[in-house]
Amino acid sequence: MSAQLIFEKSVSGRRGYLLPPSDVPPCPPADVLPTDALRPSPPPWPEVAEFDVIRHYTRLSQLNFSVDTNFYPLGSCTMKYNPRLNERVAAMPGFAWLHPLQPAAQTQGILELLYELERLLCAITGMGAFTLQPAAGAQGELTGLKIIAAYQRRKRRTRSTILIPDSAHGTNPASAALSGFTVVQLRSGPDGLIDLGELKSKLTKDVAALMLTNPNTLGLFERDIQTIAALLHERDALVYMDGANMNALMGIAKPGEMGVDILQLNLHKTFSTPHGGGGPGAGPVGVAKALEDFLPVPRVRKSGAKFAWESTGRSTIGRVHGFYGNVGVLVRAYTYIRTLGREGLMRASETAIINANYLKVKLQETFPVKYDSSCMHEFVVTLKALKANGVTAMDVAKRLLDYGFYAPTVYFPLIVEEALMIEPTETESRETLDQFAQALISIAHEAKTNPELVRRAPQRMAVDRLDEVKAAREPNLRWTPANDLVHA
Amino acid sequence: MDYAPNTPQQLQEMLRIIGVGSFDELIKSVPEALHRRALPDVPSGLAEAQVIELCEELAARNRSLQETVSFLGAGSYAHLIPTVVDAIASRGEWLTPYTPYQAEASQGTLQAIYEFQTMICELLQMDVANASLYDGASGVGEAAVLALRATERPRILVSEAVHPHAREVIATYLQGAQAVIQQLPTVNGVTDLEALGKAMRDDVACVILQQPNVFGCLEPMAQAGQLAHRSGGLFVASVYPISLGLLQPPGAYGADIAVAEGRCLGSPPALGGPALGLFATTSALLRRMPGRLAGCTVDQAGRRGFTLTLQTREQHIRRERATSNICTNEGWLALRATIFMALLGPQGLKELATLNLEKAHYARERLCTVPWIAPMFDQPFFNEFTLRYEGRKAEAVNKKLAAAGFAGGHPLGEWYPNMAQSSLWCVTERISKSSIDRLVDTLKKI
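ok -> structure tokens follow
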């Protein structure tokens, strides 16, 4: 049986944490709160001992693959090593135990750090100014699109179209729609890049901006990026770049010099902050100088040697976060950038590109790449040849788990049939890449000689393949005593 | 230090195997005009010990809440964090996986999310909760978006006693939508029900109230909810998790959507983030919900297992027709909250809430013995209350308190210009009686 739930370990009366005794006079809630505002009984949370909690969540953790325990080549997610030094710095009481409303005189150190981080991100990307407020990449996209909308208002016009290539991350069209724009899709050219003819044919007067990813989700650099930007700018439309793949570009090329007007970064990808099983991330947005006025407030300002929050902005789109964004994540990213420095960041991107190309070459005889040219930090292979044996990309992904490797991104981008999107990152050794390549080649062999083995994978995990249809048709999203498997 | 293990010799050998003579051949697709093989404006890298020295120096120029007695709340509450939370959450198996796309290799994260969803449903007394949103403020923004779409009505009514940052985020989120945001006034520190009654028409998508509200006062949630429902609008409650050890949960007064800032459950304030958006709703609105959901199902052998589910709501499947664009959320903080809630248990939460209530009521009573201090509102409160200063500006009072080692209540004039002589005071279990007494002595000398 799979692991018990914490609720199934509950024993009435057991306690896991002792609060300090009250040192003030008693204040019976019924004396000071209206009767109808009082909760009759607290939430029925589990009643467990401290050691129950330790053992339960330690055992659960062991059911996870993670960067610390397994190679995790998830494409477009940049699953690089998350340095422990970042954690140590973020946990310093002078950073972790700050209240967001403390006066600036008491927070000069963190304000300086945030100010410096903005400048470092400008230096790395060539953008004119940054906001650190968005809490993740998708919120950065939303911020960028609100800026695009505000730019239209400044120009006293209503353009409602955003052009997005068919290879884009799903968040791009979702963010555009959430901002009230209409999405028009661009069909990729035969080389997997933006097709200039297709772009020109869709570049109507209603286009407010193009959203692109560079390198794109195939791991290919948009060779015509300057021409593309010029085409957009001729029509006073803006270029938004999804910077999820910035790990390919540090010290190599700057989006600001490509003609990009708005860029979001994912600090939980390129800048090594941990993914935490689904966040927190941070999605700073950089803009060209001319768009700086639109950035969310508040922003850190420096006057003389002093730093302060400034909440007024003539054309600001407003606020996207309750306070200043995921500051703890920003501290980690700052630590990382200062640790690597100019040489280290460049070497990181170079090594990420070499590692990806090396792995691609190691695999090329078994798994062809649909768009064959040198890749940047990631590449996409197609497994359609295995279909003859009834084996899918998902089957191969699951079989990789049995070999002790997390699976690459599957079925994405949508324009590649039976896609596996592989991003090794710079923090993996050649030896690991060799082992991974060997595993994939072995699985390809198994797909021919024993396809059933691959189709039934994984066999070595806590559970085998899960019934996704049942999960969606009969949603069971919370535990109740009725589905207690232990005391039943 | 660059954390990249391959040696220069290995990289040369790898380039040879790739079939190129140099790294530059690999980036031929990058136009030469763009090549910037250097980052002159970034300083050189540092060794670990140097980074620690640098960051300790920066940290030392902040006054942490461990060095000051803080009465700041106003949307960010500092509570005790059991040692076990950090001990477990710092494990690499929790800290370093991605969103659990490969369910079989992510059962730990998925089961923890399922436990989190369950405990949040129980806390809020709602049918379904998601795996988290960015923070409480963006949760209110998502609630407004959901209400507009679900009701196909254009008007959002939001009390002026909802945290101003949350109201600002709603305004940002709704730019470009065909929506009208209408603010509801307050009377004696709580939302004016009469004004709400008059504003309720059949074009209202939702009514948004906060409990306790931004002044610390308890709102008439049940009556407000009834008024919202009477003309077919949704009722959105923004709540403070710790208060729910004593106060009625949103489900008890008919909220359709409950949102909260959940960072106070086991994570430090960190200047306001990472935060933790809690979002829960009714079964009727399940398929309109934003964010990730973990569900319980079975594997091929019939064993219980967990997986992300109802993903057809989400951006990676539905693209421009998704219910939200959210992808990465606040998973690690949700895990910390799960551990926190398991450790406290029902009795622990009730005791924690009671401690907050007792300390805050003691503090208000003592503070009001200072001749120039009086309560601003005559309303029941939990652990936060508004004080009015006779003839003194709130900022000036705080400056003097800072010199004595206190962070005084948050001056409200910044948010409500007619309240320049008022401050919002918060007292949690971290504040001792002797600190409160010393505070009062200090104020009496100002």
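Chain B has a mean pLDDT of 96.
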